[in-house]
Amino acid sequence: MGKLKHEIRDPIHGFVKILDDERKILNSEHLQRLRDITQLGMTYLLYPSATHKRFEHSLGVMELATRVFDVIIAPDNLLPQVLTLLPELKNEDAKRYWRKVLRMAALCHDIGHLPFSHTGEKEIFPEGWNHERMTAELIQKRMAELFRELDMPLRWKDVVKVALGQKKIKEIHPDWEFSRWEIILSEIIVSDIFGVDRMDYLLRDSYHIGVAYGKFDHFRLIDTLRIFPNPETDEPELGIEIGGMHVAESLLLARYFMYSQVYLHHIRRIYDIHLKEFLKAYFTNKSGKAEISVDPEEFLNYTDSMIMSEIYTYAKNQNSAGYEHAKRITQRKHFKLVYERNAQDISINPNAVEILFTALQKEFGEENITKDEHEEKGGISPFWVIDRNKNIVNVFSESEVLKKIPRAIIGFIFAKPELKQRIKQWLGENKEDILKKGVKKDE
After folding, report:
1. Would residue 290 be called left, alpha or beta, if left means φ above 0 and alpha means ψ between -120 and 50 degrees?
2. Do both 211 and 354 map to the same domain?
3. DSSP 283
4. How far apart are CA 155 and CA 312, in angstroms?
C-alpha cells in the first residue's frame, strides 16, 4: 500500500505536505508546466540566483493557506458572532470539503501565467484576457475532471472562485455570486494584506535573491489571524489580534522595501522592456496584431525554455523582427539608465519624467530612448484588530507606522548604451531650463 501523505522539502517552509490523491493535481501537465515559468521573469540577469519557479511558489501558497485555514477555524479562535455569520463553521463535512478546495485553489492559482510570469501580460494577451482568466479557463476546461476524481470530489467552479477572489471573478464572470464563506476563503489567498500569495512570494523572493528586505515573522502573523465581524457592516473579514500588529507592519514594510529595492530596480525593469518588445514581435500575427493563443492545449506549450530558445534564434538573425531586443537580452547590452525621477526635479515640474523623455526623443531620436514609470495605486487598505480589551478597532487607530509607509514610485529614462555619456552631458546643460519651460510633444 502506498503512502497516504507525502512531504516535499522546501527551503522556506521546511516541508510541504500533500495527500496521495492531491498528487494527481500536482503531477498534471498544468502544474508541471510551472517548473518552467520563472517567478521573477528575467530578474536573474540582475540577481543570478533569482531562478526560482512558479511551481515551488504554488506549493508554498498551498502550505500557508492550509495553516491559515486551520488557525482561523479553530474553536478557541472563533467569536460567537462569526459562527452565526458563517454556518459552514458548524458543519464538519463542509469544513473538510472547503479545506480541500482551498488547498487546490492555492496550488492552481498561477497556472495561467505566461512565460516569464507577468512580463508582457498586457501586451500579448488578447483584449479582456489576463493570467487570472487563463487560470479559470484551464481549471474549467482541462482540470475539472481531475478535481472530480479526487477522494473528495471538488466542483471546479468552487476552486476557481477561491483561487481568484471576488474582484477578479467579477471581471470574468459578472453573474457569479460569492457567499460570505467563499469571500473569506479567497481572501486567504488573494488579500492585499493577509493573502498567503503575497506572504510566500516575499519570503521566497528575498531568500533566492539574497536580500533581507522581504523577511518577516510569518509564523506569528498566521497564529494571530482571526475572522472578525466588521463593526461597520457586520460582514465577516480577516483581521488580527493586537499581538500580531507589529508583524503585520513588518509584512507591509517588507513589501515596500522589496518593491522599491528589487521589483522596481532599473536594470530589472529595462530587461522587462526588452522582453516585452521581443514578445510583441514574436507573437505578431499575419494581421499585424501581437496576440498569444488562449486555446488551453496550445497555451500549455508556452514556457520560459521555449521562449528563450526563440530569443537565441532571433538574436542570430538580423532580419528577424525581434532581433534588436533578442540581441540585447542574450548579449546583456540593455539600454542604460540616463535619468531617474527625483524629488528636486518633481518640485520644479511634477511631469519631469514625461517632459524630459519627450525632449530626449526629439534630440536623440525616438528609437534610441525609452522610459518606464510606475506608481502604486492607493495606499494600505485598512483592516481590523482586536485589542486587549476585546474591542475590534481600525488598525490605523493602533499603528502610526502603517500611516507613514510611502507608495513605491519610479520614473526611469533609458537610452542606447553608446549615447549614455552624450545624453548625460546634454541633460546637465539643458535639464533645468527644460523643466522650467516645459516641452510640448507637438512643438
Report:
1. beta
2. no
3. T
4. 43
- 143: domain CATH number is 1.10.3210.10
**Measured between alpha carbons, how far apart are the two ends of the chain, in Å?**
78
What is the extent of the structural domain holding 143? 5-266
Residues 6+ apart with CB under 8 A from 343: none
Q: What DSSP character marks residue 139?
A: I
Q: Is residue 294 part of a domain?
A: no
Q: List Cβ neighbours of 402 (8 Å cut-off, separation of 6 or more).
A: 248, 249, 252, 380, 395, 396
d(C-alpha 173, C-alpha 178), whole Å:
11
Strands 5-10 and 14-19, bridge-based pairing: antiparallel
Query: Dihedral through CA 92, CA 96, CA 101, CA 102, nearest 10?
Result: 90
Compute the chain's Rg from CA coordinates: 24
Identify the residue whose cell numbers are 531650463: 433
According to DSSP, the residues that pair with 8 across neighbouring strands are: 16
Q: Long-range contacts made by residues 395-400, C-beta under 8 angstroms, separation at least 24?
A: 395/245, 395/248, 398/242, 398/245, 399/245, 399/248, 399/249
Residue 371: enclosing H or E segment and its boundaries?
A: strand 369-375
Same domain, 213 and 349: no
**pLDDT digit string, tens, across residues 334-371:** 999 999 999 999 999 999 999 999 999 999 999 999 99
130 within domain boundaries: yes
Q: What's the predicted TM-score (pTM) here?
A: 0.94
- Say how far apart CA 367 and CA 355 lie, in whole Å: 17
Tell me the pLDDT tens digit for each residue of 11-54.
999 999 999 999 999 999 999 999 999 999 999 999 999 999 99
Cell of 197: 500569495
Is residue 277 included in any domain, yes or no? no
